[in-house]
Amino acid sequence: MGTEEFLRIFERVASKKGWKVNPDQELVRSFAEGLIRNKERYRLAICPCRIATGKRETDRLIICPCAYAEEDIREYGRCYCGLPEIVVPDRHIEYLQDL
Questions:
Q1: pLDDT tens readout for residues 10-55
Q2: Which residues, at least 6 apart from 8, have a Cβ–Cβ distance to it below 8 Å?
Q3: What beta strand segments (E) does 16-93 contain?
Q4: Cβ-based neighbour number of residue 35 at 10 Å
Q5: Domains of the chain by start residue, with CATH
Q6: Diameter over CA atoms, the chain
Q7: From residue 85, how far is each of 48, 76, 81, 91, 99 by CA, in Å?
Q8: pTM of whole model > 0.90?
Q9: What pLDDT, on the 0 to 100 scale, is given for residue 67?
């Protein structure tokens, strides 16, 4: 899967969930390229903004869109990865601390 395919997926997922894709196309394209690298490396489309553990059960929580995206968007207006100007806490780190 290439960058353009991920960009189309972002649009479909955002539309389905009532979200908007970040208008910064350079950021979005870079993010898609990070997902491609992580998919090749981990066989999962793990958010490039997160640290993978290599443990599939834990890492499945950070497959894009991650398990935290909906709550982040509801609370902050954007997900953790799409926030160049707003600081959002890393909910996955909180999860890892509870393990």
A1: 999 989 988 888 888 998 999 999 999 999 999 999 999 999 999 9
A2: none
A3: none
A4: 23
A5: 3-97 (3.90.460.10)
A6: 37
A7: 18, 11, 11, 18, 30
A8: no
A9: 94
Is pLDDT at 85 greater than 60 in this prediction? Answer: no
CA distance 83 to 86: 5
Burial label, 12 (beta-carbon count in 10 A; 0-12, 13-18, 19+): exposed
Residue that has been written with the tokens 């890393």 in this structure: 90
Long-range contacts (CB closer than 8 Å, 24 or more residues apart) made by 92-98: 92/50, 92/51, 92/61, 92/62, 92/66, 92/68, 95/58, 95/61, 96/53, 96/58
Cβ(64)–Cβ(45) under 8 Å?
A: yes
